[in-house]
Amino acid sequence: MKPSNVLILPGWQGSGPEHWQSRWEHAHGYQRVEQHDWLRPLRGDWIARLEEVVLSCDEPAVLVAHSLGCIQVAAWAAHSHNTLHVKGALLVAPGDVEQSDIDPLLWSWSPIELRRLPFRSVLIGSRSDPWCDFERARAFAAAWGAQFIDYGKAGHINADAGLASWPEGHVLLDDLMKD
To answer: What pLDDT score does 179 carry?
Structure first.
């Protein structure tokens, strides 16, 4: 699989330079799906951009989503006719945009799509994620047909969790990239 067909889908506000997604992008040549507005994300805009990038890949893509990126994958898959162009998805620490205390800037992301994903997926959830209750993450995995991995108490599974380049996560990605 070509590195450019591994698509990095950051969450709200993007992934900073110390985030494992950014480290993987730079270390392996993966392609970040850039959004025109990381601070005021609109679901329709983000879905359209993902569709555009998936269709530009010359072979099936693997999606690497974090936080709002996980919700983006579910929304895109529920509406796209091009899901056959995706081989699999690594969904890490989904952000629950339906929480009552969520920022009003994320209004367009609710309701969360809860249809089964038409490609192989793995969802990694944390027992101490401030943006998604552990049982809610498990419910997302069940609804999406994703394999669920309990990652213990790892916060939002981001740079603040001290994961650096997160080699354990990359092993899971390698497995998704295999035929």
So the answer is: 64
